[in-house]
């Protein structure tokens, strides 16, 4: 993803997402948590945002992000009591895919 010098903006958005996530983390089921977080952010948020992943101009997959905030940051929510180590790999893979593919 081309950040075009707007890394500071992405950091600001990310900090707001993290703060709001703590504010609304009340043990909600995932969809309720998604709705609450989208409301709490008070930013431009697209829920269940469809994305085609392109590589060399070819669609290599499709993905639906829980939230797409300010057209810059994808958020994938998991409503679990504790995040197990095995769950961190998909998040890393998504971040890596966004670095080298057009979204």
How large is the radius of gyration?
A: 14 Å
Approximately how much helix is present in the residues? 40-55%
DSSP summary: helix tally: 3
Largest sheet: 3 strands, antiparallel
Strand neighbour order, sheet with most strands = 1-2-3
Write the element-wise H/E pattern from the N-terminal end onward.
HHEEEH
The number of E-state strands comes to 3
Tally of distinct domains: 1
Structural class: alpha+beta
Strand content: 25-35%
What do the pLDDT scores average to?
Answer: 80
Taking pLDDT < 50 over at least 5 consecutive residues as the criterion, the unreliable ranges are 86-90
| Overall body shape | globular
Distance linking N and C termini? 8 Å
Give structural notes.
It is a single chain. By secondary structure, this protein is α+β, with helices and mostly antiparallel strands. The chain has one domain. It contains 3 helices and 3 strands; from the N terminus they run H-H-E-E-E-H. It has helices spanning 7-24, 30-41, 88-100; strands at 45-55, 58-69, 73-75. The protein has a 3-stranded antiparallel sheet with strand order 1-2-3. The chain is globular, with a radius of gyration of 14 Å. The N and C termini lie close together (8 Å).
Q: Short summary of the structure?
A:
With 103 residues, the protein is α+β, with helices and mostly antiparallel strands.
Topology:
Layout: H1 7-24, H2 30-41, E1 45-55, E2 58-69, E3 73-75, H3 88-100
Antiparallel strand pairs: 1-2, 2-3
Helix pairs in contact: 1-2
What features would you highlight for this structure?
103 residues; alpha+beta; 3 strands
